[in-house]
Amino acid sequence: SQTIHQWPATLVQPVGSPLSLECTVEGTSNPNLYWYRQAAGRGLQLLFYSVGIGQISSEVPQNLSASRPQDRQFILSSKKLLLSDSGFYLCASPGGGTLNGYTFGSGTRLTVV
Amino acid sequence: LAKTTQPISMDSYEGQEVNITCSHNNIATNDYITWYQQFPSQGPRFIIQGYKTKVTNEVASLFIPADRKSSTLSLPRVSLSDTAVYYCLVGDDKIIFGKGTRLHILP
């Protein structure tokens, strides 16, 4: 089995401040990790995916960046937050194999004020 | 990436069986069909996955016709706690979530 840990659970940050959200994987390892963002009442938007240490692909142009410093660690960052960066951020992994779907973390609710 | 289409919302009553159908006309030969459930302020939770015919687990059943261009998630005897958003996805890499189906269970 696999568990995705995310923190913090909630965060309120002023516009222009930096951001660092961390995701760590416990249990069964899979090289692929993903960051999603969900705006209020909307579906999940894929932001970044990583297939290994130091390997990051961005799905949409934006004010955010991601890094994979360790196999089980995936970090989402911003140097200067915008109001539009508010949302629910989720980290995910394919988990324990094709037949078990993806495992998601509990998410971070970011409000930029 | 195969696109899925599902109803935006559905209402049902406690104790009823709920069927949510998803269309995926461009599904690839090796794509699996997966359904997730999401409660407010939580990450999506895996419900069930299948490739063809019928799959059943302790939570739901998944019916997939021979052409695999659609699938139906069946939730038996729903309760108020089944109120959530349900997502249908195909494929297993860089999965793309649509808006899902917002299921509202009434007492």
Which properties best describe this structure?
heterodimer, A: 113 residues, mainly beta, 7-stranded mixed sheet, 4-stranded antiparallel sheet, B: 107 residues, 9 strands, 0% helix
The count of DSSP E runs of length 2 or more, i.e. the number of strands of chain A, is 11
The ordered string of helix (H) and strand (E) elements of chain B is: EEEEEEEEE
Name the poorly predicted regions of chain A.
Answer: none
Which of globular, elongated, flat, extended, rod-shaped describes the shape of chain A? Answer: globular
Distance, first to last CA of chain B: 38 Å
| Structural class by SSE content of chain A | mainly beta
The unreliable regions of chain B are none
What is the overall silhouette of chain B? globular
The total count of helices of chain A amounts to 0
Structural class of chain B: mainly beta
Number of helices, where a helix is a run of at least 4 consecutive DSSP H or I residues of chain B? 0
Please write the string of helix (H) and strand (E) elements of chain A.
EEEEEEEEEEE
Share of helical residues of chain B: under 10%
Residues in β-strands, percent of chain A:
over 45%
Q: What does the oligomeric state look like here?
A: heterodimer
β-sheet strand percentage of chain B: over 45%
Per-chain topology:
The complex is a heterodimer of chains A (113) and B (107).
Chain A: E1 2-7, E2 10-13, E3 19-27, E4 33-38, E5 44-52, E6 55-58, E7 65-70, E8 73-78, E9 87-93, E10 103-104, E11 108-112
Parallel strand pairs in A: 2-11
Antiparallel strand pairs in A: 1-3, 3-8, 4-5, 4-9, 5-6, 7-8, 9-10, 9-11
Chain B: E1 9-13, E2 18-23, E3 33-38, E4 45-50, E5 53-56, E6 61-64, E7 70-75, E8 84-90, E9 101-106
Parallel strand pairs in B: 1-9
Antiparallel strand pairs in B: 2-7, 3-4, 3-8, 5-6, 6-7, 8-9
